[in-house]
Amino acid sequence: MPGTLVAMPGVLPDGETVPVDGALPGTALRGVGARGFGVYLHVPFCASRCGYCDFNTYTAAELGGGVGRESYADTVLAELALAARVLADAPPPRVDTVFVGGGTPTLLPADDLARLLDGIDRTWGLAADAEVTTEANPESVTPESLKTLRAAGYTRISLGMQSAAAGVLAVLDRTHRPGRAVEAAREARDAGFDHVNLDLIYGTPGERPEDFAASLEQVVAAGVDHVSAYALIVEDGTRLAARMRRGELPYPSDDVAADRYLAAEAALDAAGFSWYEVSNWARSGAARCRHNLLYWTGGDWWGLGPGAHSHVGGVRWWNVKHPTTYAQRLAAGHSPGLAREILTPAETHTEDVMLRLRLASGLPLHVLDDAGRAAAARALADGLLDPVAYPQGRAVLTLSGRLLADAVVRDLLP
């Protein structure tokens, strides 16, 4: 399917041990930020757990007496200080993008989110045109908190709408009322946010075509300039998966998901949105999420927070997941990194093909080997690649190709 809801994995991968001080190989430090430099900041707190959620998040009850919201900003600033030491011998990076994700980042006081952004600016310096995004649940923001965030330098907000249908929200265990996401989007615009995104999930059991059509209508009416739409996937260990195993709910249908994707493309295209990544649409080039584009085009980023992933100079590492362990490591002066991997050229190539093919800008054909170019020619003949872009040396998915993006990628790779 063209888009699936993704997050930090429930089980972190294996890898080599991260040095206690977090030091990176000298080869990784050369040219830091040459392809862009971003900061991801993970806030692992949620007021309640959604039934489909496999993210690295915790409710207050799940944390018990562990690290809470009150001290979280100080803990993250300690990791930021460690990051500054690790990159001290690298070319000074300029922060092009910041993305605060979760969890529900806006469960932190707006002043704490402002303080964290100021810490990033003081450490490395924000570019004059830096994109600064925070995710938010619609019920976790107010006109006042939005104004505080905007005044602190946040330029973009991504609101988890998921659906306009009360029944769909109930299946997903979402707590906001229908219509609140649209209200929050308008409040963000009124607060001066340059860019506002609404997230949708499609293919939820029980969702009717008219439910999704209503969601799309409300998104367009909200006046946002960016929309993300993801097919629901059912992760092991979630409440939703348990309900399906018990037969309380049917499993998602690939055919239904394809129909929903086509409906999204038709409605958003008619409203002036253009796809720029398989699951993302924007009204203009300026509205595209530059932080995600940095991921998709192989840039560098430092991930702050428990479970956060980082990538610098071909080295990828991931932090310990639990907030208490994360805080304990930093209090001891140690890196919170759990493990890392140094990407081989073959691994980098594979990821480059997988990610760039999902972009409307496409994949340069010259990066493929002979077998990959032969597979691209077959995809062109099957109507999965754009016949205009192909003679210009680029593999760009057609609408049919977007529906089969994963299969096309598999064919292009060795």
From TrEMBL:
Annotated organism of origin: Micromonospora wenchangensis
One GO cellular component term: cytoplasm
Keywords: 4Fe-4S, Chaperone, Cytoplasm, Heme, Iron, Iron-sulfur, Metal-binding, S-adenosyl-L-methionine
InterPro entries: Aldolase_TIM (IPR013785), Coproporphyrinogen-III_oxidase (IPR034505), Elp3/MiaA/NifB-like_rSAM (IPR006638), HemW-like (IPR004559), rSAM (IPR007197), rSAM_sf (IPR058240)
Boundaries of every Radical SAM core domain copy: 31-274
GO biological process assignments: porphyrin-containing compound biosynthetic process
Annotated localization: Cytoplasm
Name the UniProt record assigns to this protein: Heme chaperone HemW
Organism phylogeny: Bacteria, Bacillati, Actinomycetota, Actinomycetes, Micromonosporales
